[in-house]
Write a structure and sequence with these properties.
Elements (H helix, E strand, L loop, with lengths): L1 H12 L1 E3 L6 E3 L1 H17 L6 H33 L6 E6 L2 E7 H4 L9 H16 L3 E8 L6 H21 L7 E5 L12 H7 L1 E8 L17 E2 L2 E2 L4 H30 L1
Helix pairs in contact: 1-2, 1-3, 2-3, 3-5
Amino acid sequence: MKKILIISSVLLSACATDPYTGQSTMSNTGKGAGIGAVVGAGAGTLFGGNDLKNAGLGALAGGVVGAAVGAYMDSQQQEMQQSLQGTGIEVQRTSENTLNLTMPSSITFGFDSSTLTPQAQTALDSVGNVLNQYPDSKITITGHTDDTGSDSYNQKLSEERAASVSSYLSQHNVNYSRLTTQGMGETMPKVPNTSEANRAQNRRVELAIVANNNAGAQQQGVPQQGYPQQQGYPQPGNYLQQQQNNTQKQIRQQKRKLRQQQQQQYNYQ
């Protein structure tokens, strides 16, 4: 019962009151905590023994991790919006762990070119500075075009433009292992290519910044094990394998602890 109350308090503390409407809403941090708690509760029952107790432990741990990711992305979003104000780059939170930047062609490239303009370079300097402050994420850079020209030409141009953005960021201290590029050509327009104004919207480069599962964990006091550390953050490498090994180790430790508790309870009976 105590654990259920703790979990409830974690979720309630993540609610925020809108100063304009007076309505209580769930912040991004709270959403992350809720999602993490549900997943954690399910994982907790896999340990065997007292399912209710384990679900509570799992939900509490999952809620803390989910809240950490939400808070991490909240902070990064705020800094990105402030640093890019007035540049023409659109900053949107497209999901709990994803931040999307849209760079229109009007400020990034000249006509039929993949060479970054001075204006785009200045904006990317700001993007790189924020990315380096929040290293617990991967960035997918996607180029898009309108429907003018052949499919093959547009595909190549979109790939070259995405590569230009990636190259510039990596040359300005963003670890290249965090960056992935792709070109979509004219296949994913934002709006129908029915006018020049619409085509201008479709000529763009987008950066999807996706937080790692453990993003912000140290700031929230969640222990990190099994990762080489530098400046308080896990460094790039075989992250997925390390995460899987670490999770399996934690499961074994938890099972061993529960067996010891059950044996102690049996001895007292």
